[in-house]
Write a sequence for this structure.
């Protein structure tokens, strides 16, 4: 479940990089690409006021931007649809499906083979998700 939560947060951050406030950050001319990427992610995550991180962030910008609020984020993330997830191991419980639904997931590819496959597939059906079983399991422990 923790891996699913991490993947969901990564999807949200990737999607939020497309938010107009993020795209319009006024970078100083000559700011390197990776510095722009890092600054955008810092802006999305929220830079602590008065911190050394904020100082470094603001040095990359011509002017301080308006904050990216929780309402900005949730409103934008709510528009995320059509995400596909694949896994090299099966999803043994529906809680992963519930979590994935919060991040716009509409399709899942996984090996299948869990004794819980039927319940997980039922959960996908409740959300209108497509689940495909590849039959190939790469993850073993």
């Amino acid at each position: 479940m923790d891996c699913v939560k991490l993947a969901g947060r990564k999807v949200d951050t990737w999607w939020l990089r497309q938010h107009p406030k993020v795209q319009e950050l006024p970078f100083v001319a000559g700011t390197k690409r990776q510095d722009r990427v890092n600054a955008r992610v810092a802006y999305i995550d929220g830079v602590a006021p008065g911190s050394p991180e904020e100082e470094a962030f603001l040095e990359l910008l011509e002017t301080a931007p308006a904050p990216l609020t929780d309402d900005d984020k949730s409103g934008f993330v709510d528009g995320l649809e059509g995400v596909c997830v694949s896994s090299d191991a099966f999803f043994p419980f529906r809680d992963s499906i519930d979590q994935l639904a919060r991040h716009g997931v509409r399709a899942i590819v996984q090996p299948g083979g869990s004794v819980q496959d039927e319940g997980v597939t039922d959960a996908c059906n409740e959300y209108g998700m497509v689940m495909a079983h590849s039959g190939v399991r790469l993850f073993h422990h």
In short: The chain has two domains: 2-77, 83-133. The radius of gyration is 19 Å. The chain has a mean pLDDT of 91.
